[in-house]
Amino acid sequence: KAGVTQTPRYLIKTRGQQVTLSCSPISGHRSVSWYQQTPGQGLQFLFEYFSETQRNKGNFPGRFSGRQFSNSRSEMNVSTLELGDSALYLCASSLARTGVTDTQYFGPGTRLTVL
Amino acid sequence: AQSVAQPEDQVNVAEGNPLTVKCTYSVSGNPYLFWYVQYPNRGLQFLLKYITGDNLVKGSYGFEAEFNKSQTSFHLKKPSALVSDSALYFCASLYGGSQGNLIFGKGTKLSVKP
């Protein structure tokens, strides 16, 4: 069974631009969560989706948004990029409705660099 | 404020010795607690979780963690360390129920020397 895939793996943008990252969960998984990892702030939870509905959200500004499609694939969007948005963005999928309390399987991440 | 603390930035252990990676939490209500491991170039992996029940939780790769409510701790342990256990370990806690916010500690780098 294929793992969680994230595209693109690497991305370079400039301040003020917007970016969309994609995550395809493991087949059959309906919960997708997103995380940001930076050297300064560490790992931070962004949001979680289940059956196309955002179920919970971390403490990030409204520039960070996401969505989930009927096939469980998820996208996250960051508008008006700032230098501080440079990070590794991780996506995780899980089988159960309980999402983050279930065993999560992580993708390799998308490395975003904002210049 | 809700928080998770990993007091050690790095833990050094000799192969074959027991290891402990410490974690303390400060969350309201009943905590859901997790350990994750991030191997170099291999991404983040789920190790184990405590939701309710037995205070000793067993997870992947021979790791276990002990939930101690009075000390608000959830230390990760392994009886005999392997060089391949060298990685970055994160403790996390979910507050606000199963649909709440997941907060992570800063991470502890474990180095196991042969």
Question: What this model shows, in words?
Answer:
The complex is a heterodimer of chains A (115) and B (114). Chain A is 0% helix and 52% strand. Chain A has strands at 5-7, 10-13, 19-24, 31-38, 42-50, 53-57, 64-68, 74-78, 87-94, 105-106, 110-114. In chain A, the strands form two sheets. In chain A, strands 2, 4, 5, 6, 9, 10 and 11 form a seven-stranded mixed sheet that branches. Chain A has a four-stranded antiparallel sheet with strand order 1-3-8-7, with no helix packed on it. Chain A has no helices and eleven strands. Chain A has 115 residues and is mainly beta. Chain A starts with a strand and ends with a strand. In chain A, a hairpin with a 5-residue loop joins strand 7 and strand 8. Chain B has strands at 3-5, 10-14, 19-21, 24-26, 32-39, 43-50, 56-58, 64-68, 73-78, 87-95, 101-104, 108-113. Chain B is mainly beta. In chain B, 41% of the residues are buried. Chain B is built from no helices and twelve strands. In chain B, a hairpin with a 3-residue loop joins strand 5 (32-39) and strand 6. The interface between A and B is medium-sized, with 25 and 21 residues.
Q: In summary, what is this structure?
A:
The complex is a heterodimer of chains A (115) and B (114). Chain A is mainly beta and 115 residues long.
Class of secondary structure makeup of chain A: mainly beta
- Report the sheet with the most strands of chain B, covering strand number, pairing sense and barrel closure: 6 strands, mixed
The total of helices of chain B stands at: 0
Quick one: biggest sheet of chain A? 7 strands, mixed
- Please tell me how large the radius of gyration of chain A is: 13 Å
Mean pLDDT of chain A: 91
Q: How is the quaternary structure best described?
A: heterodimer
- Silhouette of chain B: globular
Uncertain runs of chain A are none
Largest interface: A-B, 25 and 21 residues
Give the SSE order of chain B as H and E letters: EEEEEEEEEEEE
In total, the number of strands of chain B is 12
Shape of chain A: globular
